[in-house]
């Protein structure tokens, strides 16, 4: 079964003013090992789509399957548990716990998922070392640059080896150096087999993926495989 299979997804936001039809009927199948970028202008509904795929928002219609398993009946609590194990998420603004050290931020999801403290520490040391943050483990998030904080967020998202990584504008608040860094890391994890769905309004960043979905007005307008040179096949 594909890692992710969404059918007929619909989501409308009701706030002040007119309802926002953010996602208007989306079918999306992501296979193991794919790196899919979802791109499109601001307001197209990309972020809402990602929130639906990660169970952070519930669809008004349609269904989502993870590894073939239906999620329709999952409660919020069940989503929270499953997210920890099978869906890593990174956001534009990192969302690290500001009063926990870098090490504790990364270990927390492992401990919550039932790892022993020793296992959590081993995983944390390995990931942070690999991400070039071995010397920052005792730092607090606020002491780090944006690029470093996003690397910590990436370590936290991957500490439980989730089959799926969702990234919502992960470079959106970084300078060009931080952007290159986070994109290089996404590519590296992809090369090792990590399945990734990246949401970005930046078409240049989308070209790091091997499949680019153009999102417009709540719908998929185009879905193209790339050949690795950034050009459509
Ligand atoms: P994108 O990520 O492509 O910029 P979003 O998914 O953030 O698009 O937004 C899609 C549409 O839904 C926009 O019109 C936005 O204003 C609206 N929207 C998103 N979230 C909410 C919300 N919580 N309440 C009301 N409207 C929302
Ligand atoms: P992010 O891209 O960081 O996930 P979102 O675009 O989803 O952020 O929006 C951040 C917060 O603002 C969310 O709680 C979202 O529901 C809300 N939001 C986004 N767009 C609107 C909107 N047009 N009206 C009201 N709330 C919105």
UniProtKB/TrEMBL annotation:
SMART domains the record matches: AAA (SM00382)
Keywords: ATP-binding, Nucleotide-binding, Transport
UniProt-listed CDD domains: ABC_MJ0796_LolCDE_FtsE
UniProt-recorded Gene Ontology molecular function terms: ATP binding; ATP hydrolysis activity; transmembrane transporter activity
A GO CC term attached to the entry: plasma membrane
SUPFAM superfamilies, alphabetized: P-loop containing nucleoside triphosphate hydrolases
One Pfam family named in its UniProt record: ABC_tran
Domain of life: Bacteria
Domain ABC transporter: 4-233
Name the record gives this protein: ABC transporter ATP-binding protein
Organism listed in the record: Streptomyces guryensis
